[in-house]
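Sorry to interrupt, but I need a hand with the structure work. Leave the record below and I will have a look:
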Amino acid sequence: MEPLNEKQIRSSFVNCTKGEAARLRLPLDFADLPWEDLDFLGWVDPGAPLRAHLVLPRERGPLGITLRVPSVSRASAVRSSLCQICLTSHASSGVALLVAPYAGARGREGNTVGVYVCADLACSLYLRGKRQPKLRSGLYEESLTRDERVARMWDNLDAFVNKVVGG
């Protein structure tokens, strides 16, 4: 992913107000992000831990989506151990249901769409072996190459983003 600046990130959000985008906090390690290892930028807001954000590169510029993170008590009830974006297997606490308001009128009416995803939004780093999940026993091994896994991740992420933006 090409490095982004704060203005590009804040102006990219499609499912929140300009005021909400202006108030979000960037990742604490923003200055040191490994952009070359990222397919997209994802983080839990350090100032509002029940909010998360995704920023994806697109032909017409970055596209940002804000998400709600379940409270701690709800996260522990998550039974899924597989991220629906990158298909990384985690212990149940490593996957969280994140919910995004739809962009536009549907989102202003309170309608949302959710996805089970790596709780730390580090799908790119898991796919590249830069971060290791806390795995459960009895895991499967994939025969896909890294590039094939990254392509699959993009298909899954694009499907979710298309639901959010209504396209």
Notes: Residues 73-78 have pLDDT under 50 and may be disordered. The first strand starts at residue 41 and ends at 44.
